[in-house]
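Internal tracking record. Fields below are filled automatically when a chain is submitted to the structure queue. Please do not edit lines marked as system-generated. If the sequence contains nonstandard residues, flag them in the REMARKS field before resubmitting.
Queue: standard
Priority: normal
Entity type: single polypeptide chain
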Amino acid sequence: MSVLTMVRKLLLPLAAAIGFIFGENVMAIEEPGFERLEKIENFEIRQYRPVVVAETFVDGDLSSASNIGFRRIADYIFGNNRSMLGTVSKPSEKIAMTAPVLVEPVERSEKIAMTAPVSVEPQGDSASGVMQSNRWRVQFTMPSEYSKATLPTPVNPEVSLRDVPGKRFAVNVFSGFSGEERVQQKIDELFVWLDGKNIKSIGAPQLARYNPPWTLPFWRRNEILVEIAAP
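SYSTEM-GENERATED OUTPUT FOLLOWS
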């Protein structure tokens, strides 16, 4: 029996207990809808449906920006929001958690409208050096029952809502940790795979994390997504 198999068997009861304690909100949450068009080992081509996202922009390295961005948007969906019923202000509304959390680097020169301002993005055509960014966009996909018009307004001006149209993505799925070096490796793998298929990317790579932080590394699901043109 391998060491990994032994560890899995020993820790499975612990993971089950955690799932029981935190309930179905951890184990069964909504993900953005898509159609899988192709799958080869850990690589996929997906056509995603339009979604609404809540997003924020954060300065710093990947780890610190992810944590700060997550807290800001979690604060919004847990009730730091407001909406109107006619001319009357409604109580704050709790919004269901979804997966994944997306993180992408952005250029500091990007202009963000105050009223209409959430993933890893290289500069230019190269995917190398993506993790060296010091400005990031963090975003949650909102539950499909909402439109932008029906979502409550964030109280924090650093959190905003945005409509994202349907897009086609190439995806590299991986488990384990998602630190800067490993993420860069998975980005490079995805671009090599796309080059081998003569598929041109038209967007920047995004890092998607699906699991809460207490999830054991070999049960974590992470993805690198990059937009590609539909044929």
